[in-house]
Design brief:
alpha/beta; Rhopdopsin 7-helix transmembrane proteins; Jelly Rolls; 19 helices; 18% strand
């Protein structure tokens, strides 16, 4: 049904253009001259256009000026007509030669001011009216060497003091495949004719501008979508076809630049036709490749290219003689394009309905232009302009749909790629964390077995390397979350002073290995407890302090928490990290905040790292509306700082730093029975050893089903639940336990991220989530806290 209505619209447009064309021709009043005389003395010429056709006097091989006597008796030939269609004395004339045309024009008295529109001829003329030279195109002469061809449209105002006009027109052609007057002059009211010419000139310039700007626009679009060659070829088509509007009849360009060489402009005129068709063929090829016949498309393309080559190299007479055949072939080109677009519409290709309409309009345009070329109709300029605008409009819609379709497709592929990347990172994270859990756990256990000094040194090196690897994995995962805008921030109670102290303690061993002084200062005015995200703040500060230690060879590193301001509800604190390290050159300071980038390529070789740390810190702070600043001097050191505001907690029952005081005694989990649900035997061994070292008794279940069977609410104080297990996973097992109205703390012990657990858990209530590899002390603290001992 949709294609039916499209077809109806197409035929309405076609009928409208043709009707306007024939109407325009019918509006031309045809009063043929008889024996060289056009008598309009009894006509009402105030309105309408009169075609000065009919039988004109004709003098072959003579160039007569006013007052010259002809050598021979005049012949009378029909105007308009080309010489190769004229017979004199039983012989066909050659298109090469020269001749004189004469016409006596009689007009009524008391008429308005009149004018004659003189079209171009093949290929030069001089026009005299009542013995006065009034118009000239090029220079007609008796020899090729003296003659000069030129084409443009001229309008001559007739004198109002006489009723009789003797018109003499000298015409010469030594170059074109046709010669003579191919279009009759038109007589009309001067004001009307000049006004119409101005309108036609304006329409041509407007249309040429539209086509040229469309070409530039789509070329610009192609620069952003280089994969789509259809956009490129359509832009080239527009940029070439632009010349067809101003470089062909009525030759607007020639009227402005009347010194242009005819031999150059005629080649440009014909080449623009051949190449515009060639690139439109290529446009169709890449627009709907499924519908085209590739061999036929190549043949059509090379026909145009070969013709363009002939135009560029061979004489004018040859390629102009081929033009009528080429114009007839264009009907096949447009018909084939119409067929392709019809197939595309039937197959519901992107923008194919608009392609169907645009090809139909193009078919109409070329049909009308060709009919005009062969003299069958006089197309209305406004109708032709409207047709071109519609054609461009529909083509713009096609390419816009195509471009937007590709953008949507690219967006979908990007989302799929991001999802695949996230899934890959999640999987690889899980696979890395599982053995890391064993390495970190085992190193912890070994450190608690009173190793010899040389063994302790090796174990600490192993633990340090494992923790570094864990830090790299976390950086990659965090950056992935930041890119996907999936990072969420908590707002819970925390102690800024304690966080700073913990960070310095954690970095002390690293600093001491390098014989660096590491210090910490917190202003006493900073409140004990504020609200914020301790995890992300710790991550930022720890990364900045670790970087300071890593890039400092001698000297010191200092972390300072400086009181800035406070009101009733919040406090503003400035965090400053200073070092005496290698420093960063001023011209490279902006680079250190870019992902996977360090100030110098040798830095990563000398100091290691992915170059993600500062980028992550900067992004985390930006998401909290805080800026990370840097001041550095090469060889002297660097200072990083940021200022952040936190809500203040006024009613403090217990200081955060005291929350776990006294918990981690020798056997903090003495008396605990813990159900450990884990399918990995190595992880079971590590977790069981750590928990037993802290004094707990451990029961083992290898999957969720066994956990449900073994769980005893009266016995088990805590469940450590792995989530990804065979038979029954930890999510389902937790849900079933909760359905029994059990309030036992269930701590998810998993290698996946907290966000993934939260998104999958839905309404399942985990008491806490601990990521592998876990710190044994941290695990112990959380178990104690969740079991209610605190």
């Amino acid at each position: 049904m949709k294609r039916f209505w499209l077809t109806v619209v197409f035929f309405i447009i076609a009928a409208g253009v043709l009707i306007f064309g024939f109407k325009e021709k019918s509006s031309q009043i045809d009063t043929p001259a008889i024996q060289g005389v056009s008598d309009l003395g009894t006509e009402n010429i105030s309105k309408g256009n009169f075609i000065l056709d009919g039988k004109w006097e004709f003098y072959w091989s003579e160039l007569l000026k006013p007052g010259d006597l002809p050598q021979y008796q005049p012949s009378y030939i029909t105007v308009p007509n080309t010489w190769n269609n004229i017979e004199l004395n039983g012989k066909s004339l050659s298109p090469i030669g020269y001749a004189t045309y004469k016409l006596k024009l009689i007009l009524p008295s008391g008429r308005p001011e009149m004018a004659i529109e003189i079209p171009d001829t093949y290929s030069s003329y001089t026009l005299y009216i009542n013995d006065k030279l009034v118009a000239q195109n090029g220079k007609p002469a008796k020899t090729k060497e003296e003659a000069i061809p030129f084409w443009t449209l001229k309008t001559v105002i007739l004198p109002s003091n006489t009723d009789t006009f003797n018109i003499i027109m000298q015409v010469a052609n030594f170059w074109h495949a046709k010669g003579g007057i191919y279009k009759a002059p038109i007589l009309a009211n001067a004001e009307t004719l000049l006004k119409q010419e101005s309108i036609d000139w304006g329409l041509d310039v407007f249309l040429a501008g539209c086509i040229f700007m469309s070409g530039l626009l789509f070329f610009g679009v192609y620069l952003f979508a280089r994969h789509d060659k259809s956009i490129l070829f359509f832009s080239i088509f527009c940029l070439i076809y632009f010349y067809r509007i101003i470089g062909t009849e009525p030759y607007v360009l020639h009227g402005v630049f009347n010194t242009l060489s005819w031999f150059f402009t005629i080649r440009l005129e014909y080449i623009s036709l051949a190449l515009s068709v060639a690139f439109f063929v290529m446009y169709i090829r890449y627009l709907y490749p499924e519908e085209i016949n590739i061999i036929l498309i190549k043949v059509l393309f090379w026909i145009c290219i070969i013709y363009a080559g002939i135009i560029a190299v061979f004489p004018v007479q040859l390629f102009t003689a081929i033009l009528p055949v080429y114009l007839i072939a264009l009907f096949f080109y447009i018909g084939y394009a119409f067929y392709i677009f019809t197939k595309a519409s039937a197959h519901n290709r992107s923008g194919s309905d608009y392609a169907f309409l645009s090809s139909g309009i193009a078919l109409i345009l070329f049909f009308v232009i060709n009919l005009s070329y062969f003299g069958f109709i006089y197309p209305l300029k406004a109708a032709i302009t409207a047709g071109y605008i519609l054609f461009l409009f529909f083509q713009s819609l096609i390419l816009s749909f195509r471009f937007s379709f590709r953008l949507r497709k690219a967006a979908i592929e990007a989302r799929q790629g991001l999802k695949a990347k996230s899934e890959f990172l999640s999987t690889i994270s899980h696979e890395i964390r599982t053995p890391l859990n064993a390495v970190i756990g085992m190193s912890h256990l070994l450190l608690h077995t009173n190793p010899r000094d040389n063994q302790k040194e090796n174990i600490e090196a192993l633990s340090f390397s494992a923790n570094n690897l864990m830090s790299l994995v976390n950086d990659i995962l965090d950056f992935n979350k930041l890119e996907a805008n999936q990072m969420k921030f908590e707002e819970i109670e925390m102690s800024l002073k304690d966080i700073g102290e913990y960070i310095i303690r954690g970095q002390q061993s690293f600093a001491h290995e390098k014989d660096l002084s590491i210090s910490y200062h917190a202003d006493a005015s900073i409140p004990d407890i504020v609200k914020g995200d301790p995890t992300r703040l710790t991550q930022v500060l720890n990364n900045l302090v670790h970087n300071a230690v890593k890039f400092t060879k001698t000297g010191s590193v200092k972390l300072s928490l400086l009181y800035e301001s406070r009101d009733e509800k919040s406090v503003t604190v400035k965090f400053v990290i200073e070092d005496t390290g290698i420093g960063i050159p001023a011209d490279k300071q902006h680079m250190v905040f870019e992902r996977f980038t360090q100030a110098d390529s040798s830095t990563s070789r000398s100091y290691g790292g992915t170059g993600l740390g500062l980028s992550i810190c900067k992004k985390i702070l930006e998401l909290q509306h805080t800026a990370l600043h840097l001041q550095s001097e090469e060889g002297v050191g660097s200072t990083f700082w940021f200022v952040q505001t936190f809500p203040v907690v006024n009613n403090i029952k217990q200081k955060a730093s005291e929350t776990f005081s006294g918990i981690l005694d020798d056997k903090p989990l003495r008396g605990y029975t813990i159900l450990l649900v884990e399918d990995n035997a190595f992880n079971v061994m590590i977790a069981k050893s750590v928990l037993e070292e802290f004094g707990a008794k451990v029961d083992i279940a290898s999957n969720g089903k066994e956990a449900i069977e073994q769980f005893n609410a009266a016995l088990h104080k805590v469940i450590l639940m792995d989530l990804n297990m065979p038979v029954m996973d930890g999510y389902e097992a937790t849900r079933l336990i909760r359905e029994r109205n059990s309030t036992v703390p269930i701590i998810a012990l998993t290698a996946t991220t907290n966000e993934e657990v939260t998104s999958k858990a839905n309404d399942i209530e985990f008491s806490a989530i601990i990521q592998k590899p876990f710190n044994p002390d941290t695990l112990c603290r959380i178990i104690v806290k969740q079991s209610g001992k605190v």
